[in-house]
Amino acid sequence: MRVVLLQDVSGLGEAGEVKEVADGYGRNFLLRRGLAEFASPSLLKRVEEQRHAEERRQLLANAETVSLAQTLEGLVVTIKAKIGAQDRLYGAVTSGDIADEVHRLTGQDIDKRKIELDEPIHQLGEYEVSVRLSKELGPKVRVIVAEEKAKAERKAKAKAETKAEEEADEKAEDTAEEKD
């Protein structure tokens, strides 16, 4: 008996395939459960049209993926983060943070699971991260983790204040020695 599979059947085939099966298996299992239909000429024609439509969709999706890969290749993503002692981050930069920043820069939605990050980033610096769009396409994105400006400005201001205080102390000592 020839049947057209309507759904994937483990051990037999995928939806849309035409298979030759035993009569009892076809009638008592596949047809009753709605997993297959008899292979009539009209059904075979409809399945072939669906297969062609799926191929066209795949070609269009592949073209979009290649375009996205070209956009992402060499992209520089800068992520600002708060830091603590020894330039270690409070928290971490994750693949979700990188995906959000790529979306902000390019307008393209990237699933965070496609960003290949071995472990979250905990240090300032530059990192090269791969984005796995398909088996063949994995553009590299440069991620720069930098210190937040507010923190950097506070540090610079604190250094300037400390230096000003030291200079004031030295002047005070110099004037005190001159009076003596």
What does it look like?
With 180 residues, the chain is α+β, with helices and mostly antiparallel strands. It has two domains: 2-65, Ribosomal protein L9, N-terminal domain (Ribosomal Protein L9, domain 1, 3-Layer(aba) Sandwich), CATH 3.40.5; 70-150, Ribosomal protein L9, C-terminal domain (Ribosomal Protein L9, domain 2, Roll), CATH 3.10.430. Helix content is 47%, strand content 23%. It is built from four helices and nine strands, in the order ββαβαββαββββα. It has helices spanning 23-31, 41-72, 95-106, 149-179, and strands at residues 2-5, 18-20, 36-38, 76-81, 88-93, 115-116, 121-123, 125-131, 140-147. The protein has a four-stranded mixed beta sheet. Strands 2-1-3 form a three-stranded antiparallel beta sheet, with helices on both faces. A hairpin with an 8-residue loop joins strand 8 and strand 9 (140-147). The mean pLDDT is 86.
Poorly predicted regions? none
- Fraction of residues in helices? 40-55%
Main beta-sheet annotation: 4 strands, mixed
Radius of gyration: 32 Å
CATH topology label of the largest domain: Ribosomal Protein L9, domain 2
Instruction: Provide the number of structural domains.
Output: 2
User: Helices and strands: which structural class?
Assistant: alpha+beta
Kindly report how far apart the N and C termini lie: 117 Å
* Helix-strand topology string: EEHEHEEHEEEEH
Number of helices: 4
Share of β-strand residues: 15-25%
Oligomer: single chain
What would the average pLDDT be, to the nearest integer? 86
CATH superfamily placement of the largest domain: Ribosomal protein L9, C-terminal domain
Number of strands: 9
**Spatial ordering of strands, largest sheet:** 4-9-8-6
Shape: rod-shaped
State the CATH architecture of the largest domain: Roll
CATH class label of the largest domain: Alpha Beta
